[in-house]
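Attaching the record inline, Q. Sequence:
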Amino acid sequence: MMTTDTSALNSIKLFVRRVLIADSFEEPLLPAYLSFITGVVDSDDLPINVSREMLQQSRILDLIRRKLIRKALEMIRSLMVGSGNTEDEDAGDEGAEEVADKAKDGNVKPTSNKYLDFWKEFGRGIKWGVIEDPSNRNRLSKMLRFRSSKCDPDNASDFISLDQYLDRMKGEQEFIYYHSGENEGQIRSSPFLEKLKEREYEVLYLTDPMDENMLSHLKEYDGIKFVAASKDNFKLGETDEMSEKNRIREANKAFRPLKKFIKDKMSDRVAKVKISHRLTTSPCVVSTSQYGYSARMELIMRAQAFSSNSEATGFVAETVDPLGGATRTAGNLVIPHDKILELNPFHPLTIKLLDMVNHDPDSAEALDMLNFMYDSAVINSGYHVADSVGFSDRLYHLLAKALNIDVDKLVPVEEIVKRKEIVEKRAKANDDSTANLEDD
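Structure, as predicted:
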């Protein structure tokens, strides 16, 4: 039996010869990630005339735990392959083992509706198991289901397994790509996926806060490593990667003045500047190192840090990251300061910025434009904007410049009175109902 009440880990009751012996254990019969399963165990092998303390130390109880975990996973696997039900399970271990053999090779294709219903309800338990149970990690990984860039966005039941992903990989593809975000719409429009979409690589969509942590424990599947689309170690297939490197080779030389300008002006915000091979339509993007936090994970970690009793209201300390970048501490949380600004050398904005720097290496206008592009890239990449006041001030001044007004010069009262008179005249002429509106 499965239940959504996972508050109690002791969901299995132990009977010996139909006599209730225990309904709670120091070490539960099922691990926490399977706590959605409830049931009873009736054993003829345990002694009935011993204390509960002695019973907890019984080696037979350890055997029961292992058997229960195996039975639970076989039950879920039978649901996954669409060839088992509760009657099959009641038929005995032979039926369960037969179902297990069918799924042992991992080439499970379509996902049954019953399993999708199970996954939507209890999928987080399976993910938790991947994190917490290394001995069963490979079995559990076959049960994982994901939404991806090749799933139908209008069909909420269109999920894929990792085996299906491998079957659909391009011939020279070396990695399993994934990207995280708050929802599918945000992930789908992310600039990190521009090149992957253009080259028709499939990307797993991670919307659950647990997903990235789970994949960091799984690391690879069937010998294929997982790679985040937003990390510095991102690579395409060998042929596509070589094609992109050849494409940007000249740009690396041409953009040296701009890269130096950015490093000089933004050394406190940017650890590295590079020419990007993952962008097509966006002028720039902010990525992170292979071992840094993604934008989604950083937001999750920030929320955890500031939900504590700490009175931290910002970054309060700076240390050294062993991987090379500075780190900053928020409360008890250390957030790596290893942001990488990637430039699209073929975008008109980056070319214009390069021309401005070439013309005047100390250009204040170029610095304003750079700050705008950087802040926009931070937002577009999903990161937190540290200097939100500075960003809004620069935006107001840009709007004022476009409209040819002085944003720092306040409007005198006389100008307000003139506009009030215009509104009153128009209301009388048109019998406008706004004339009767009360002032706030």
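The chain has 17 helices and 14 strands. Confidence is low (pLDDT under 50) at residues 83-100, 102-112, 307-334.

More tomorrow.
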